[in-house]
Prior knowledge:
It is a single chain. By secondary structure, the protein is of the alpha/beta class. It folds into 2 domains: 2-173, HUPs (Rossmann fold); 186-307, 2-Layer Sandwich (Pantoate--beta-alanine Ligase, Chain: A,domain 2). The protein has 12 helices and 9 strands. A 6-stranded parallel β-sheet has the order 1-4-3-2-5-6, with helices on both faces. Strand 5, helix 8 (151-163) and strand 6 (169-173) form a beta-alpha-beta unit.
Amino acid sequence: MKTIRDIAKMQEFSLQLHLGGLRVGFVPTMGYLHEGHLTLVRRARAECDVVVVSIFVNPTQFDRRDDFEAYPRDEERDRRLLEAERVDVLFMPRAEEVYPPGAATRVHIEGLTETLCGPRRPGHFDGVATVVAALFNMVRPDVAYFGEKDYQQLQIIRRMVADLHFPIRIESVPTVREPDGLAMSSRNARLDAEQRKAALALSRGLAAAARAYEEGVCEAARLLAIAREPIDREPRVRLEYIELVDGTSLRPVEEARADSVLAVAAWLGDVRLIDNVILGRGLTGESDADADEIPPVITIGEDDSERRGEGSAGACE
């Protein structure tokens, strides 16, 4: 596995790959890799000639300095995991080169950044969009892979790519979960044992609402109430929001349909977690303890165009 830290060298290397007719797949990460990241890497490995993974903890997408400093990091561990997945290039740009003195350009996507996490994390998605646009110009991939756990981020990146005419295809991969249903996240490492157990209320609430939708419950108010029930019972969880939104515009909806997204954000101590479920598909994991609450498992790696809008739609169409 080749490691590149210099932006100009990454651009030159990518140019040579394209001149050779090779297809480049890109997985941008902030490191401290888990199975969710590795699922993206495997998808890229299966579909592309060359796989590039970036590790860059982006300071401009953190709204609190202490959160940036507390973000887990382990470069050697990440390197071993990527080598085992036969990644071709590990790109680790330096912050001072990504954001040189005097840098004054930021990317802002209107509309999609004004719902869900946007108002609660001012400037966060501007930081995300700016660094992803910069990374796209550095790596110049043919395909880039993102997880659906960060659903709002995924839609923002898709909009940016379309509006700015990046010649890049965006592929998404379903949320990868722990065996008990918790969505995988690098932040999970910061949870203590009691917080880790309490965090399961999020996926249980989403699963219960997804099951209700499959059984014909369509009204947003009812689905939100069902999702909140296990969350409200857990005193360690401080709910930030839970909303039912359109899967494309991310605007709240009154009636669910097969591409609606139920999204949640909550705090456990000083750790903020997010999760979501795309209605009509159910969660992408299963809990042994609460199997009766969890909808059927979907296969990771299905083509996104085949997944969206499929599955049982209950009586909501």
